[in-house]
Amino acid sequence: xxxxxxxxxxxxxxxxxxxxxxxxxxxxxxxxxxxxxxxxxxxxxxxxxxxxxxxxxxxxxxxxxxxxxxxxxxxxxxxxxxxxxxxxxxxxxxxxxxxxxxxxxxxxxxxxxxxxxxxxxxxxxxxxxxxxxxxxxxxxxxxxxxxxxxxxxxxxxxxxxxxxxxxxxxxxxxxxxxx
Length: 179
What we know:
Layout: H1 2-7, E1 15-17, H2 20-45, H3 50-62, H4 75-100, H5 105-130, H6 140-160, E2 164-166, H7 168-175
Antiparallel strand pairs: 1-2
């Protein structure tokens, strides 16, 4: 009898699936709610004006030619900066949700902040290679900004997530020995 029990495969526990709707909404909400921080708080902390931040963010898609001194406001640059920022928060939220979606809100926030820290390091030490003018964002204010966005992304994902499990019905039936 013992050999029969040992030869039966043990059912694998179900896997929690990523809630893609929550990823998209969390990314958009994080992006939109962090825009005031990006356009008003961050410039005040690093001695720039809002138009400069808009130009720098737009320059990621439009190139360094959009950066002018003195900075001048352009609605086109503002729209490109917003699209760029929300796209980056969507990417960051996807990474955070993919890693931490199984662990709950506290881990989502903490893990998100740590991913935000890693994102800052990647930005400063690799993105400045491609966008040399972005060295301006090296410092504690931008580091905290990235960590805050990561924490926000983790929080909003966990708050919006509807937990779905792969093969949960199959696991429950086979784990109780019923078919």
